[in-house]
Amino acid sequence: MATMDVLSAKLLRSSLHPHAPCLPCPSLPSRRYRRPSSIYCRLTTSSLPSSSAATTSEGDANQDLTALLSDESTTAAPGAGSRKKRPNSGASSIPSGVRLENISKSYKGVTVLKDVSWEVQRGEKVGLVGVNGAGKTTQLRIIAGLEEPDGGNVVKAKENMKIAFLSQEFEVCASQTVREEFFSAFQEEMGVKTRLDQVQAALERATEDMDLMGRLLDELDLLQRQSQDVDLGMVDVKIQKLMPELGFVPEDADRLVASFSGGWKMRMSLGKILLQDPDLLLLDEPTNHVDLDTIEWLESYLKTQDVPMVIISHDRAFLDQCCTKIVETEFGVSKTYKGNYSGYVLAKAIWVETQRAAWEKQQKEIEHTRELISRLGAGASSGRASSEQKKLEKLEKEGLIEKPFQRKQLKIRFPERGRSGRTVLAIHNLKFGFGDKILFNNANLIVERGEKIAIIGPNGCGKSTLLKLALGTEKPQEGEVILGEHNVLPNYFEQNQILLPGRSS
Question: Which residues form a coiled coil (predicted)?
Answer without folding.
Answer: none
